[in-house]
Amino acid sequence: xxxxSILGISDGERSLKLLRTDHFxxxxxxxxxxxxxxxxxxxxxxxxxxxxKAKRDGKVRYIGFSAHSExxxxxxxxxxxxxxxxxxxxxxxxxxxxxxxxxxxxxxxAGMGILALKAMARQSWPKKIGESQRRWNKxxxxxxxxxxxxxxxxxxxxxxxxxxxxPPGHWELSKMALDLAQAGALAPLNENxxxxxxxxxRMSNPLFPLLE
Length: 212
Hints:
Elements: H1 12-19, E1 24-32, H2 35-42, H3 47-56, E2 60-67, H4 70-79, E3 84-88, H5 91-95, H6 101-109, E4 113-117, E5 121-124, E6 141-143, H7 147-158, E7 164-165, H8 171-182, H9 191-202
Parallel strand pairs: 1-2, 2-3, 3-4, 4-7
Antiparallel strand pairs: 5-6
Helix pairs in contact: 2-4, 4-6
């Protein structure tokens, strides 16, 4: 059994061969950024035609998608009964930016698998910090990199709840998340900690803009 997200469809057969399997458990329509991309994916000769054919042929078990905008996510959910969603869910964007609750609520009501991105994201990099000055040069956002604040971010997202969350790509940050999980340090937030994250959120510049 292979669990994998696929960025595209043109190399599907080659990927199956390299992975030595005859099917994918999860085939993902990746990185939908706006409604136009959703319409293109579902249009004539769009990506969904090939994905659905792959499922009919037994090469795909489940179909998911990822998005970084609520508009694109809702547009995709309007068009298909997806099995999973990969979406940014972090407390600064959720609390201050009001970004995430409507998509999360809809996915939960539909019984979808909810895979969370950017649980350790604090905010956009401050303009005064140039690219060469950034501690984490692989991150396009400023992450929570102190263990106490990172734990708050992980705990908030994990206990929304979600099916799973994906830590940042930097090994040091990923290891921090894994160490916290293995130490049993990801319990739900208590009332005082809820106040702490609201204060942190108020002082942040969330990655995603306020909803209109």
